[in-house]
Design brief:
This protein is mainly beta. The chain has 10 helices and 31 strands.
């Protein structure tokens, strides 16, 4: 039909051949009509439309009409709600979470929230000082919830910096999460278990690799001028650990500086050993920790022994994991079709073909030649596994935890051991960890108390590069750019490259790369406490935090960048040792029936020594030796480097909390920090804050 109109009218037609496949057969007779009338009759009831442009008929697909979607059995709807207390006052900051999911939100200043819900969802609402409440969504358009206050919570003791106070006497923003509320069965780090547990706390894990680092932000923390949240475990700051070493050598160091392999330095803490986690969220609460508390403070309190018979506990779990959703990519047949269309569009542009790119007619230039012939496309299939499917697998996590605790009134103890094993869903990612912990507290006399704590951890990880950009983007990027028309493995077992992106490695070849990280950490601490008089105590403590991380890698000749260097090996290592001395004098006493004073003053000194080393070589005779024989490489200039650093903190601090009648609290805190980062240790900065806060008890008459 198109050819007949072209012959009789001298009109030219512009169209994409594949679009004509959807056209319906036409059986029509027309005599003595114009071209416009003929086109209107031909394209009636067709899925195609047309447009006339200077004696050129452009055929294109019609926009698809929106088809009302069938209402599914389970349809999610946006539901708004409001949470108030028993007096009808809105409660801001309430955590509203859908049970057994990671979806949730918090209420705004008016106590309002909005969530996408399905009928039958169970909402869990929690807030400090109120009873946790569960509610089943039954399809209502709005949700009104009244939360009841928990009087017991007001009397609960909450750990703050260098002491503890009752919940009702808190003046700063402090949120507590109990250890029993943390889902430790599938997490390598306790940070992962904090998601959705505290309002105003954002937990982000940039990569899903087993043992990967986690970023915790308190109240969004918009500043880029800090080193992140300060973590304190049983009174010991633990941020100065040996970090994950970067890939070394001329290949890994140059291409994968941002390698997406960031192991959490807090993996040494067994989540099962945690008694509670406190978030010091504002300046009032965190000022006692000074300069390093700019992004907030996370206090971790571990379990200790209690008086009673020895108690043995075992917990274990096993679970499988699968990638929930990966980036969608074309199947082989669709890829061939799109590759042809892309080349055809480039042909139109380069030859300035009318009507979009110029005035050149198609018959006056070299004909377009497709990349793939119709027979090749017809012989292809969209059902073959894609490169994205090839790089994922079924993973698992398992852990076993054994603990022993007890005490006799003067001596209490707690010992635990943990084994954690995770097989990642991305090929080449695994993580194993062994933890051991022991603490003991001894009452020597009615005035003297001593104690010690030991945490030991050893871990091994297999890494796969997932970060970076462009050709250095890692295994996921390589799978996205892979051409489905090329087999992932050659007949000889080799790993071919995509002809369209020859600078990107074959995604399956990442499995042949050896990249291992071994980490050890030993945190020991001891203290002695002397009760001078009733309410007045002096305490001295010492801790030693030793950590080591070693990363060994080898890029074989089966991997693109390894082939370019004829094999590339490297070893990187980082060591850290941190010593902490603390001396405090505390006073806590009811001065009279209505007056209470809780005060503490102290001095702390911490010195951290770090060392680093890396070496690399390439051009090996064989892949067999990997990184075990760096000296056998024959690079023109092998890489080698080392580093050393020292950081010292010396600080004085004081805090006083005065409570009147149990419901009015005045708190003042001051701290002076000196650091070797400044010119001299005596050059310090003073952090101080005075806060007046009131709390009124409700009474019935």
């Amino acid at each position: 039909m198109i050819e007949k109109i072209r012959q009789q009218s001298n009109y030219d037609f512009f169209y994409i051949k594949d679009n004509l496949k959807s056209a319906k057969p036409v059986d029509i007779q027309l005599n003595g009509v114009s071209v416009e009338e003929a086109l209107k009759a031909i394209f009636a009831n067709q899925p195609l439309g047309y447009e006339l442009k200077d004696r050129v008929v452009v055929i294109k697909t019609k926009p698809r009409a929106l088809i009302p979607a069938l209402t599914p059995v389970f349809k999610s709807v946006d539901v708004g709600g409001r949470i108030t207390d028993q007096a009808g006052v809105a409660i801001p900051g309430v955590s509203v979470k859908i049970k057994n999911t990671q979806r949730g939100t918090v209420t705004d200043a008016d106590g309002k929230f909005q969530l996408s819900l399905i009928k039958g969802d169970v909402l869990v609402m929690s807030y400090v000082g109120f009873q946790t409440k569960e509610l089943v969504y039954d399809g209502q358009s709005t949700i009104e919830v009244i939360m009841e206050q928990t009087n017991n919570a007001l009397g609960e003791v909450v750990v703050i910096g260098y002491g503890a106070v009752k919940q009702k006497n808190l003046t700063g923003a402090v949120v507590q999460v109990k250890g029993k509320d943390l889902n430790s069965s599938v997490a390598s780090s306790f940070q992962q278990t904090l998601q959705g547990k505290a309002a105003g706390v954002e937990v982000i894990q940039p990569t899903g690799q087993p043992g990967a680092g986690v970023t915790v932000k308190i109240r969004s923390n918009p500043s880029f001028a800090n080193a992140g949240v300060l973590y304190v475990v049983d009174g010991v700051p633990v941020n100065d650990a040996a970090g994950q070493p970067h890939l070394g050598g001329s290949v890994g160091g140059a291409r994968y500086v941002e390698d997406g392999v960031d192991k959490s330095p807090l993996n040494f803490i067994n989540p099962n050993d945690i008694e509670s986690v406190q978030f010091l969220k504002d300046a009032s609460a965190a000022s006692i920790y000074g300069a390093r508390a700019g992004a907030g403070v996370v206090l971790i309190t571990t379990k200790r022994g209690a008086e009673g018979k020895a108690k043995i506990e075992y917990t274990g779990s096993y679970g499988s994991q699968q990638a929930d959703k990966m980036y969608p990519v074309f199947g082989e047949q669709d890829y061939m079709t799109q590759r042809n269309l892309l080349k055809q569009e480039i042909w139109y542009r380069d030859n300035k073909i009318a009507p979009y790119y110029g005035n050149v007619q198609t018959g006056t230039v070299t004909p377009y030649t497709p990349v793939f012939t119709p027979s090749q496309i017809d012989g292809a299939s969209n059902n073959n596994p894609s490169a994205m499917d090839a790089i994922v697998r079924t993973g698992y996590t398992q852990q076993h935890n054994l603990s022993l605790s007890g005490g006799n009134g003067k001596t209490s103890y707690f010992a635990s051991g943990n084994y954690f094993d995770q097989k990642g869903v991305i090929i080449g990612t695994d993580y194993k960890r062994y933890n051991g912990r022991l603490n003991i507290d001894q009452i020597v006399s009615d005035k003297i108390k001593i104690g010690a704590n030991i945490i030991a951890s050893n871990s091994e990880a297999d890494n796969t590069v997932t970060g970076g950009q462009n050709e250095n983007g890692g295994i996921v990027t390589a799978a996205i750019y892979w051409a489905p028309s090329v087999p992932l493995r050659g007949p000889d077992g080799s790993y071919p490259l995509s002809p369209y992106y020859p600078n990107i490695p074959n995604p399956l070849s990442y499995a042949t790369v050896t990249d291992k990280t071994k980490s050890t950490r030993l945190l020991t601490s001891a203290y002695g406490e002397w009760t001078i008089v009733e309410g007045l105590k002096a305490k001295g403590s010492f801790s030693l935090d030793q950590s080591n991380a070693k990363r060994s890698s080898y890029f074989p000749t089966t991997f693109l960048y390894g082939a370019q260097a004829n094999g590339s090996a490297s070893i990187s290592q980082s060591d850290s040792q941190s010593k902490l001395f603390e001396y405090t004098l505390s006073y806590n006493k009811n001065l009279s029936e209505k007056h209470n004073l809780n005060a503490v003053a102290g001095y702390t000194y911490q010195r951290t020594d770090t060392e680093g080393f890396n070496a690399g070589n390439q051009n090996f005779l064989s892949d067999v030796t990997q990184y075990y024989s760096l000296q056998s490489g024959q690079a023109d200039k092998p890489t080698v480097g080392s580093s050393k650093g020292q950081l010292t903190w010396a600080s004085y601090f004081a805090r006083a909390i005065y409570t009147y009648n149990g419901n009015i609290t005045l708190q003042a805190s001051i701290r002076r920090d000196g650091a070797s980062l400044l010119q001299r240790i005596r050059n310090g900065a003073i952090f101080h804050l005075y806060l007046l806060d009131g709390y009124c008890l409700m009474k019935r008459f």
